[in-house]
Batch of 3 targets.
Target 1
Amino acid sequence: MAGTNKLNKALWTNITELKLMNKEDTPIKFLFDKSPFGDDDDDDDRPETEQTEYTIIGRILPNSDIFKESAFQIEMKLTNRYPFEPPEVRFLTPIYHPNITKDGKFCHALLMRTARWKPNTTLVEVVKAVVEHIDNPDIDYSVNHDIGKEYTERREEFNRKALAMINKHKLSRN
């Protein structure tokens, strides 16, 4: 139970920092939609029993020419091994992007256990990495090689398809 309380404290701190990413002067925006601690900001909503998974849902606001047209809802799943294991980040809003699988999973070296993940990496840093790589796709980590190739070799076609998907699934940036 002591481990659970320590995890809850780390999560609570990370969630508080994520909520601050909604301020007007923040360069990277995250609009909070759902917390594993409930809707209230009251400490009494903290889970008292050990869970195997915690879910945070929110919307990112990319800044690139194409992707700034919409907000994108993402889900961060954390196991009870967090912060020693990275969260899994998945897009709930469909997106045409070389670093996103068809089922929405975001793939990047930061979120791999054996690569750059460190236990002191914050969820704010995760969100910043997601937005940065939506705005500037990392072709080295393309999970859809056809989209990656299209992004590098036929950018106008990529932009057309990405914008069509954005227009179809557009979310408010407010």
Note: The two ends are 39 Å apart (CA to CA).
Target 2
Amino acid sequence: MSPPPSGNSKDSATARLIGSGSAGILELLGFHPVDTVAKRLMNSQKKVTGLPFSESMAVMNQVIFKDAATKGTFSKYISLFPGLGFAAGYKVMQRMYKFGGQPYVNDFLNKNYKSTFQSLFGDRHSKTMMHATAGSFVGIGEIVLLPLDALKIKMQTNAQAYAGLNAFQIVRKEGWGLYRGATWTAARNAPGSFALFGGAALTKEHIFKLEDYGKATFLQNFAASIAGAVASITISAPLDVIKTRIQARSREQAEGGWTIVKNMLAKEGLGSFFKGLTPKILVVGPKLVFSFTVAQQLIPMISRMIDEDAAAVKAAISKST
């Protein structure tokens, strides 16, 4: 999931790639441990509600830090960095794909279906809905990156099952199982990306009254990012829990999505579908807001720099001739 584009179809491909890639790298460096904590909480089937405080904290400690639960602070911190290589490949490619790809889908909708959106949603809301719909399409297409995401999650939640194996051996072992949960991932990404892009676009257009999203200030981008991130995380939470549990299991432990849903309802109750939601909003939310804001700032800024350099070069050539 990722931020809406600047709203300017003239942003260059170079600006979109550099801006989105930079956002992915910075997000990875600052938030990988946080992502690990969230994934382990979502994958855990242990109940902590109803237990005495000390017992619930002991369970949480075991779930989050696994084999490092009884070790020192530094060892616990290091234990939150499994699968960093897979995470780097996934996160940077994901951000470049979504941040860089969504503007092109939005441009396509704007060029070919603008009148359709205007007739359905009116002039006031058509632009926001095009941004949201473009985000949803790109979110569904994100399943092409699913193997990297699956490897990252497996290392974060079930690393002991792959001890001693390198990346190629893990891929060979899992095979097409790395695409397990593709349907659930697409089902999660469609509404999640719709809410993320739509929430941010709605904030910019109807709260800040911006015609050109690329002219948003840092604070406006930040506020739009918060709105989009909270909406996206909340709406996609149940499907995200199911997706995480599907991907976390090894090939031998594999279960189908509907089996997981049935077991969750029978053993953990309806609330299990929102497991980890509060820490995810409080801890993972800032990660999404951070990358959201960085991309929205960098893409139009880099585009303007490229345009200025191109204009200077053109002027120099004209002067010399």
Note: The two ends are 48 Å apart (CA to CA).
Target 3
Amino acid sequence: MDVFTTQSSLIFNDTNITCPMPLLWPKEMVDSRRPRLIVFMIAIFTHTVFWLQLAFCPSVRQKSMQWIYAYLVTDIFLLARFIITYIVRTTTTECEPSPAWVIFICYFDAIFDNYFNVLEVYILLALNICRYVQIAYNRNVYEVHKSCLVFAHLGIYSFTLISLVIQFVLGWCQIYVIFRDSCQVIYTNLYIQIFNIATAFAIPIFLNVIVIYMSARHIRLASTLQKATHVSAREKYNRSLVIQFLVFYTIWVALWAPNVILYQISGGGNLTSIFRLLNFIEIALDPIILAALDVRFCQAWQKWWKYAKVYIFQHGPNPGKVQPTTTRFNTLSIKTPQLRTTVF
């Protein structure tokens, strides 16, 4: 806590401004974040459409998609982190806000982003491993190994958080406050930086590449053995799973990795704005890419599109046909009781 006491005094006392307003962004800081705000609005739209699909389409509410939904939930938290920080930093006009509130905002600003970005890489690794077991062993992991999945979820969320807490408690990293700009994490030695780059980036990425290779190799060997007869529907489906994940993972790494690496080396300046903008573009694209690559989402969209076309065709305006149909219907409804009366 001594570090934060020193940093708090730096914010409030080491300035010659009568009313420093340490949490308020100046105009240039707000302008630098405007592109991220625009991408944030786009991301809100894409995620809203995706989650509405989940709410109204039972076909996409499956246990086998739990890692996809866990991944997209982390996107929601990252979007929430941005808009909360943006609102606080553009509306807080107090000259000297509570030090506890400033410390909380700095923790929130500096740690929240990194925590959920690291969660994403391990969630995708878990998804990839489950798909490999499904491909190589023809086993439904989500039904056979339910307890393992529960421990996997708890382990990913808790161990990542514990790692961050231990680093702060032992003084391996500290919060660096940039006056009226942002709060960043700085590391006290090179070894902890190497450890974080390895655990948050290198190791999970390497493991994902290995699992993708093993899945592709199994499919290639299986298709070679079946060339004499024919390629089964299961092999085609497994091949599509690998291709889908490879496409998504390539786009994701290209947009996600720069921000995470910059965070671990305590970078700043213009690179921070550019790399975080790339990270937000990835968040906005996630629902679109996942929905486009997964056949279950495509089928759900096709069903909704067919339903919409039928509804528009039946209930849409058509002046040329509505009037005659209405007239005939009324005529029949009037004549029918008269005929029945005559017969009676």
Note: The chain has a mean pLDDT of 80.
